[in-house]
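Quarterly update from the structural biology core.
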Amino acid sequence: NILTLFPEMFDIFNHSIIGKAQDKGLIEIEPINIRDYTLNKHKKVDDYPYGGGAGMVMQPGPVYRSYESVTEKIGYKPRVIYLTPQGKVFNQSMAEEFSKEEDLVFLCGHYEGIDERVYSLADKVISIGDYVLTSGELASMVVIDAVVRRIDGVLGDEGSSVDESFYDGLLEYPQYTRPAEYRGMKVPDVLLSGHHAKIAKWRREQSLIRTKRWRPDLLESANISASERNFLDSLGAVSYTHLRAHETLSDLVC
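Predicted structure, tokenized:
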């Protein structure tokens, strides 16, 4: 359930993976127009801020009433996620957490923000990064997409979500397809070998290398073994930062 001033923006969810998931009945996405819950004929939902200042602020009344329409429909108070730059930065563990909920309400702010009293509705206040967007609709799309991907059956191939970046705290390994050589860049031999154990080992090592190269901050909480940490430590003296995607682990270590 998405409380929004612009329900038409969410037509994007009628396509691709999320559209198919809705067709299968795995999920239901319902944008709820906050303007439908105003008490004036002009559908006005904002007003000037007390104390002065630039911009307009969304009034609490239409937001509360739109939320109450959801609780009346489903018969209980679902978890409310409020999208705002002031929130905690969204991550994969939150996506996993939210995907286990039967119902969710996403509240999308706009203008200069929402009346502070609306915060009392929120169970979780989150942001998708330290920057300002035009509205919470854009941020909610990102979060909803990440959450829906964690729901069983949505991706079809259960292995798809397991191999994605951040699943176990690491970035995803490099991916290749045909041709085996393109403009002098070759697919690593191990991927052509058909040896599944060696391929799995190579992919795991590449995930470790990529994470250390691009997102070393993730390694502090990543799900990795003692031997893998030793492997990462062994890269300290190696110029791995110049590793190109088509180079193999043996190229790096040698």
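The chain has nine helices and nine strands.
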